[in-house]
Amino acid sequence: MKKEHNITTSIILSFLILSIFSMSIIILIYVLYTRGEGKNYSLITYVLYSLLIYKSYIPYIISLSVYFSFFRAKYLHQKSISKVIAVPIATIVVLVCFYTLYDYYFTDFFISTLREHSNARDTKVYYEYELQLKNKAYELAREELAVGNLDKAYSFAEEALFYDKNDGNTLLLIKTIQEEKKKIYDRKHKEEIDNINKLVSLGTREFSLSNYNKANKYFTDVLKLDNNNPLALYYINRISIARNEKPIYYGNTTKDISIYTRLSDTIKMYENGNLWNAYNSISKIYLEAHEIPEVNNYYSIIRDAVSRYDFFIKEAQEVKEAYLNNTDLLRYSFDFNHNGINLMLGKNVLLSSSSSAMFKNNLYIFDISLMELDDELKVVRCDNYLYGKLADVFKATNNMKNIILKAYFDTNKNEYNYNDSYSKVIPINISYSTINTIKNYSFLNFKYISFSDLFTLRKEITKFGYSDEEITMELLIKNIEPITYLLLFLIIAYYSFRFRLSMATEKFRFYNRVTGILGTLLFSLVYRVLINYIAILIILISHITIGVILIVILAAFFILFVIFQMARIPRDVR
Question: pLDDT grade, residue 573 (50/70/90)?
Fold first, then answer.
């Protein structure tokens, strides 16, 4: 039992020591590399990235651990060889299970954690940048108001409010601008206002005399000139009540009735999917009556709906400036967020973006080319856009999403057109898991993608015109690697034990040890290449399921054969 414990302990200690050593080397090299590139990431970024790279070296670490442990083992004639090797073999099985879990799940978890950490870090920096933009817009609004440029002042104030919709100073400034605008409007439209006031006066007089039909006609005429006139709406309501009818408009005061009437129209726009008009309408109502709970509630709902489905050009510009162009602002931001995305939208349509960024859980893409290809994959047409976003279809219940492209490049004028009418909406059918995979792994080799995500990608990748052969290859490898690696480690254990026994009577020199280590690594490398080659052959000549079953059966047979040979070692000892 002593020998059994020693081999097992040696495997575990060797694996832990080699893992710590390899992780330290990976971190050191990665730190030196990034510092040489002028970048300096957080400690958790270095650790998570090193854990990802570590996954590729686990088979070699296990191989060396098995070699060291079984090479040191000695055969004791009074012990049954089966008892000596039983627990070490079980330990090897546990290490193979660890590698499988690491490959199937842990790498996916590390990448997701890394992305979330990087996004949180970048977003925090962006919010500080956003605060600077808000203060700048607010000061510009005050300056324009001071010199009488009310339209510019209002535009800057709205921009400041976009960053913080509850900022009291901005709301107060907008109120002042509106009052100044009203004074100017009153001066310019004095005749129209006088006409409205005259009609209101006649209407109130007829109302006081209970001539409701005439009063209703006057107030209806007022609404033709000013469709949101609060007094006209109020008296039309009073007329309905006087006739024992249900009030047409909700509210008790003139302001409430006006606000609720406009809010009702806005809600209809929103429910009909007319998001932008609904947003423009609710924004104006919010500036006038943000203290009314229903207004505040629908402002948040509609603004969030627009933000999820579409994006504001200004926000996209600022996200690009902060995440991609401003190296001083985010000079230590993590690279994983800044890779472009390429999607085949059909057999002959390719969407290619030069860069992308995650912000508020949305995927933005920048500098986009929408290319139409002929059968020889030559570009026959190319439309360029500055901004894009992957968004849900409004109120969709299936996997339908939209890629929304904006700021079309006009080749005639040689400039981008920011008019919303030039935007392009491209519907695609794609699941959330595929979107997350694209977000996480657009920069990575398939070997880092989790097992379940590979299945989802394999099912959906052909929708975008890509071949699923590479994914099928990786799925096959992930299926057969556990049992084939178990066979590899047992072969190493067997021949390490035999190698030590054969050298027992000779002086074991340093070069013999080096030869053993290099031989183990070289054998593991060749074995890995061989497995990949076998996987390619299976894909070419057989169905993937049949191929996996065949490999599992053959590997299981050879595993039992190697174990049987290990149990016979005492018979071969000379």
Answer: very low
Pair 83, 1: CB distance under 8 Å: yes
Average of per-residue pLDDT values in the chain: 80
- Convert 49-84 into a string of H (helix), E (strand) and C (coil): HHHHHHHHHHHHHHHHHHHHHHHHCCCCCCCCHHHH
At 412-430, the pLDDT tens digits run 888 998 887 788 888 888 7
156-165, 391-400, 532-541: which has the minimum mean pLDDT? Answer: 391-400
- 199 touches 229 (CB < 8 A): no
- Which two structure tokens, joined as six digits, stand for 358? 């995650």
Q: Are strands 362-373 and 400-410 parallel, antiparallel or unpaired?
A: unpaired
Please count the other Cβ atoms lying within 10 Å of the Cβ belonging to residue 317: 16
Q: What Å distances lie between residue 411 and 55, 317, 400, 424, CA to CA?
A: 48, 21, 32, 16
Q: Looking at the predicted structure, is the pLDDT value of residue 238 above 70?
A: yes
The continuous run of DSSP H or E covering 476 comes out as: helix 469-502
Q: How far apart are CA 206 and CA 138, in angstroms?
A: 48
Q: Which residue has the tokens 């009310």?
A: 150
pLDDT of 64 reads: 92
Q: Would you call 410 helix, strand, or coil by DSSP?
A: strand
Which 3 state secondary structure label does DSSP give 398? coil
Cα 489 from Cα 258, distance rounded (Å): 79
Tokens coding 51: 């854990």
The backbone torsions φ and ψ at residue 335, rounded to the nearest 5 degrees and listed phi first, read -65, -25
Average pLDDT over residues 64-75: 79
Model-level pTM greater than 0.85?
no
Residue 20 has pLDDT above 90, yes or no: yes
CA angle 530, 458, 446 (to 5 degrees): 50
Structure tokens at 102: 């690491």
Using DSSP's 3-state secondary structure scheme, residue 149 falls into coil
H or E stretch covering 275: helix 275-289
